Amino acid sequence: MADGKSLRIVHCLRAPVGGVFRHVEDLVRHQAAAGHAVGLVCATGSGTGHEAQRLDDLAGDLALGVHRVPMGRSIGPGDGVAAARLWRRLAPLRPDILHGHGAKGGTFARLVGQALRLGGIPVARLYSPHGGSLHYAPASLEGRVYFAVERALERLTESLVFVSRFEEAVYRAKIGTPRCRSSLIYNGVAAAEFEPVAADPDAADFVCVGEMRDLKGTDLVIEAVARLHAAGRTVTAALIGPGTERARYEALAKERGLQGVVTFGESMPIRRALARGRTVLVPSRAESLPYIVLETIAAARPLIATAVGGIPEIFAAEAGRLIAPGGVPPLADAMAGGRGDPRGHQDRAANLAAAIRPTFSSAAMAGSMEALYRSLVAPRTAAAPDPSSSLPVTSRNR
């Protein structure tokens, strides 16, 4: 720690699953290794199987503990009671930083943070949207409600933290120019993850890893495989991950006559999952800056992804290789093309891995986040330096 002061940091998210949990998990491990005391808040009963095991493994690094409170996906009448319960748990911990992730985690972090401040604990409140409510359409009822809440909560926020320029642009377009500080800090992966992963001998032709939901394009994978089979191209696909709608996708695969062709698997360590397919699919309809893309590229696995969210920022000069979102024909065509040029597909994957390594590093992400945290805590300590001018990321005061 550059200034010798250990910080007390609590992260708040709804469900410890997917890329948001991966982001928090990386931050917690780096922050604990740097000597900070870290805690985690998540929803009661969230995280099962592989995710639950990851949370258990992470608990050893959590000096401020794991705190579970009821936390539904949507705004509900029980949120106030849950926030009060969480305030009673966090007040004795006297955190310096309360960092909310996702719409619900961000709401709890800022409301509880405000209560802590009113009680004399000058906690800094941060919010990372990670997509979340930004996926709603502005004209929808849900969008109008959530965007109004987001706008109101800015007054209880010391800093917004965006993971991509795209996410920041969407926030500005749907919610407005931030009235609080905002920063851009890219997600990143560890140096060890840049070791290549080879496909298993019995790997499917394609693998799609992550939460099974239409937003992630799970239905598109099934329909694309069906389209290729109808054209006489025999391909297989593995869908790996959690999801409350899995039964619907299994029924769709059966309806399309793809039993045994499209298989379904539970969550597993990401590098093991990446090995379950010769090419990885990320056919999302919307994203922020998805870890699955970073993890796949770092492992030098061939990848077919859509041009949504911050994915073009990751691909940079190679963004022209991305496909349009939401359509079965573009996905099926890209899948057929990848099978027709496996060597070229693999070479492009290796080149892309080398290209992203300097920018998308978890160590750089954690360092930038700590610098931001300290710049927010520093005003409370007269002798503390303000490192905001040397943040290794774009930092903005609004």
- Rg on CA atoms, Å: 21 Å
Report the major sheet: 8 strands, mixed
Q: Cα distance, first to last residue?
A: 28 Å
Q: Give the topology string: H per helix, E per strand.
A: EHEHEHEHEHEHEEHEHEHEHEHHHHE
Spatial strand sequence of the major β-sheet? 3-2-1-4-5-6-7-13
Strand residues, percent? 15-25%
Number of strands: 13
| Classification by helices and strands | alpha/beta
- Number of H- or I-type helical stretches: 14
GO molecular function: glycosyltransferase activity
Protein name: Glycosyltransferase family 4 protein
Organism: Prosthecodimorpha staleyi
Brief synopsis:
This protein is an alpha/beta fold. The protein has helices at 18-33, 50-59, 79-90, 102-118, 141-153, 165-174, 218-230, 246-255, 270-274, 291-298, 311-315, 328-340, 342-356, 362-377; strands at residues 8-13, 37-43, 65-69, 97-101, 124-128, 159-162, 181-184, 204-209, 237-240, 262-265, 277-282, 303-305, 394-396. The protein is globular and about 70 Å long.
Walk me through what this model shows:
- This protein is of the alpha/beta class.
- The protein has 14 helices and 13 strands.
- The chain has helices at 18-33, 50-59, 79-90, 102-118, 141-153, 165-174, 218-230, 246-255, 270-274, 291-298, 311-315, 328-340, 342-356, 362-377; strands spanning 8-13, 37-43, 65-69, 97-101, 124-128, 159-162, 181-184, 204-209, 237-240, 262-265, 277-282, 303-305, 394-396.
- The protein has an 8-stranded mixed β-sheet with strand order 3-2-1-4-5-6-7-13, sandwiched between helices. Strands 10-9-8-11-12 form a 5-stranded parallel β-sheet, with helices on both faces.
- α1 (18-33) packs across α14 and α3 crosses α4 (102-118).
- It starts with 7 loop residues before the first strand and ends with a strand.
- Residues 382-398 have low confidence and may be disordered.
